[in-house]
Write a structure and sequence with these properties.
The complex is a heterodimer of chains A (330) and B (261). Chain A is mainly alpha-helical and 330 residues long. Chain A has a domain at 37-247. Helices cover 73% and strands 1% of the residues of chain A. Chain A has helices at 2-32, 39-62, 70-86, 91-113, 118-138, 165-187, 190-200, 202-207, 212-238, 248-261, 268-284, 290-304, 308-315, 317-321, and strands spanning 155-156, 160-161. In chain A, strands 1-2 form a two-stranded antiparallel ribbon. In chain A, β1 and β2 (160-161) form a beta hairpin. In chain A, α3 runs antiparallel to α4 and α11 (268-284) packs antiparallel against α12. Chain A is globular. Chain B has 261 residues and is α/β, with parallel strands linked by helices. Chain B is 32% helix and 24% strand. Chain B contains 9 helices and 10 strands. In chain B, β4 and β5 form a beta hairpin. The two termini of chain B are 32 Å apart. In chain B, 48% of the residues are buried. Classes of the chains: A mainly alpha (330), B alpha/beta (261). The interface between A and B is large, with 34 and 47 residues. Chain B: InterPro entries: AAA+_ATPase (IPR003593), ABC_AA/LPS_Transport (IPR051120), ABC_transporter-like_ATP-bd (IPR003439), BCA_ABC_TP_C (IPR032823), P-loop_NTPase (IPR027417). Chain B: This is ABC transporter ATP-binding protein. Chain B: GO terms for molecular function: ATP binding; ATP hydrolysis activity. Chain B: Residues 16-257 form the ABC transporter domain.
């Protein structure tokens, strides 16, 4: 018996090395990226990548399709922008305000949504997020159609000037890495294991005595809070918070990014977000309508790579050889 | 094989009981006025033709369905209005007719997930997965007790049907239930597995109550102390196997002849 378990551990070791190498290369790329790319573009990419990963915590690891995550993303952007601009709090605290605001919003929306499953769950999240959208449209502190403009980036810890693009980039990268690390920890924790079991067979989880609703609500709030981290960060990067980020199109976009990259993989959504943001950026100046192109890309991906780009790689021969075997049913 | 005698000689106490259990689906009554007493250290079989309402009774007892009428008592507590996960935490654990495992988890992980909650290792989102290694000892013991030690690292979806059922029993036992409800535990199993599972159930029933739905009558005859026959949602006959099998109404129900008793 102990023999079989030892075998299992030995089998895991070489993929661990491969994955560490991949991780190192990825981090090095991100550290050097501002030398080659426009920092604001990179920061936008990181914000959306974090957003998609936070969303995937719910879709990929708990099996809940939320169609209202824009409320947390855009909501946090408003909260952070307001805190930094009107209360004059430092940027790091402003982001925390966004995170807590989004978590609170997540607790309220989640409380109602988790009572239903499947498409009903998605519709309730959509409806409540739309309510929040109209609240943002009417409320005084969001300044309606104008949004909150010229948000100061401020000084990190009172010393580092974030108006400097390079400083801001490394700040965003640090927050991004922390966010991903938190998601990784949640997924690979005893709690994450229970989430997986709920995704796999909810009835069985209930019969094992798990109060599935509480676990789902906890996952929902965590996902909302991490989405808030991305949203607050974005408000500081662009120095404004507008209705775009709370609109339902944003909720749709994050679903697109996650599916493109590969649901249920940690880094898939990062690639998905990268692809969508890059397309949007390059096509913004061309004559082609962006939505049609992203729509076509999405259709091609759904038809050809059902598991998403990263999901397909994990399942390919090379991926399996490198030990990225990925088990998720579609 | 003779019916196993319980470990203790005292009069068996009732651990799970239902009174006047009824469930309507629209105009159809799936279960009607069912009284049931499940005793500690006894194997109780629930048999009856297809559509007799056996699984509905299971769903009612475990509160996956809410009864239209009637009361259910578990270990002296009224659970008629209790949520299913709470019922499971109180010690009434069930298996399912369609084998319920977590298909993309390994055998070891399936058992560990079941062990997590009773061992208070379920809500920690800040701890690494290796924290669950603390459960390996217990998990191995359970896996060995059902003879799955060779498949410990296999993914549950890759197991044969019979092995999946055995795994489900192991995860059910992981909760150390006081009352075990098994929905057709031997269905679709090979001959050898049937013998092994019967042995496991016999062993398990020394310290807990078992209520099982089973179609294999020879298993029922050798394993069960008490048999309840359901037909069209109502209790047709009750007693030990010998009594029940002699009952002409039961024979009619099982032979499927049209004559009415």
């Amino acid at each position: 018996m102990t023999l079989t378990l030892d075998l299992a551990k030995r089998k895991e070791r070489s993929p661990f090395i491969v994955q560490t190498v991949f991780l190192g290369v990825g981090l090095a790329c991100l550290l050097l990226a501002p030398l080659f790319f426009y920092p604001v573009f990179l920061m936008k990419l990181l914000c959306f990548a974090l957003f998609a990963c936070a969303f995937n915590l719910l879709l990929g690891y708990t099996g809940l399709l939320s169609f209202g995550h824009a409320a947390f993303f855009g909501g946090a952007a408003y909260f952070t922008a307001h805190a930094v601009k009107e209360w004059g709090v430092p940027p790091e605290l402003g982001i925390l305000v966004g995170v807590f605001g989004a978590a609170l919003l997540g607790a309220v929306i989640g409380f109602f949504a988790i009572r239903r499953q499947g498409i009903y769950f998605a519709m309730i999240t959509l409806a409540l997020a739309q309510m929040f959208y109209f609240f943002c449209l009417q409320s005084g502190f969001t300044r309606g159609e104008d949004g909150i403009q010229s948000v100061p980036r401020g000084h990190l810890l009172g010393v580092i000037d974030l108006l400097q693009p390079t400083n801001m980039y490394y700040f965003v990268l640090t927050v991004f890495v922390i966010g991903i690390a938190i998601i990784w920890r949640i997924i690979n924790s005893p709690f994450g294991m229970v989430l997986k079991s709920i995704r796999e067979n909810e009835t069985r989880a209930v019969s094992l005595g798990y109060s599935v609703r509480n676990y789902k609500l906890a996952a929902f709030v965590m996902s909302a809070a991490l989405t808030g981290l991305a949203g607050g960060l974005k408000a500081l990067v662009f120095q404004f918070a507008t209705l775009t980020d709370v609109s339902w199109q944003m909720s749709g976009e994050v679903i697109l990014m996650t599916l493109l990259g590969g649901i249920g993989t940690l880094i898939g959504p990062i690639f998905g977000a990268g692809l969508v943001v890059t397309l949007q950026n390059y096509l913004a100046t061309s004559e082609f309508p962006v939505t049609i192109i992203t729509g076509v890309v999405f259709m091609v991906c759904v038809l050809l790579f059902r598991r998403g780009i990263v999901g397909e790689f994990y399942n390919s021969r090379l991926g399996r050889k490198l030990g990225f075997e990925h088990r998720h049913k579609h | 094989m003779a019916v196993a005698t319980p470990l203790v000689n005292e009069a068996p106490r009732v651990v799970l009981s239902a009174r006047g259990l009824r469930r309507d689906f629209g105009g159809f009554t799936a279960v009607k006025d069912v009284d049931l007493d499940v005793h500690h250290a006894r194997v109780h079989a629930l048999i009856g033709p297809n559509g007799a309402g056996k699984t509905t009774v299971f769903n009612l007892l475990t509160k996956f369905l809410q009864p239209t009428h009637g009361t259910i008592t578990l270990l002296g507590e009224d659970i008629t209005k209790t949520a299913p996960d709470k019922v499971a935490r109180m010690g009434l654990v069930r298996s399912f007719q369609i084998s319920a495992v977590f298909p993309h988890l390994t055998v070891l992980d399936n058992v560990r997930v079941a062990l997590q909650r009773p061992n208070r290792l379920a809500t920690q989102f800040w701890k690494p997965l290796s924290a669950l290694d603390a459960l390996n000892g217990k998990a191995e013991e359970l896996i060995r007790s059902v003879g799955l030690e060779k498949e410990v690292n296999a993914v549950a979806a890759d197991l044969s049907y019979g092995r999946k059922r055995v795994l489900e029993i192991a995860t059910t036992l992981a909760l150390e239930p006081k009352v075990l409800l098994l929905d057709e535990p031997m269905a679709g199993m090979g001959h050898e597995d049937v013998g092994m599972v019967a042995e496991i159930i016999r062993e398990v029933a020394r310290e807990r109550a078992v209520l099982m739905v089973e179609h294999n009558l020879s298993v029922v005859a050798t394993l069960c102390h008490h048999v309840t026959v359901l037909q069209r949602g109502e209790i047709l006959a009750e007693g030990d196997y010998a009594t029940v099998s002699e009952d002409p109404r039961v024979r009619t129900a099982y032979m499927g002849t049209e004559e009415t008793s």
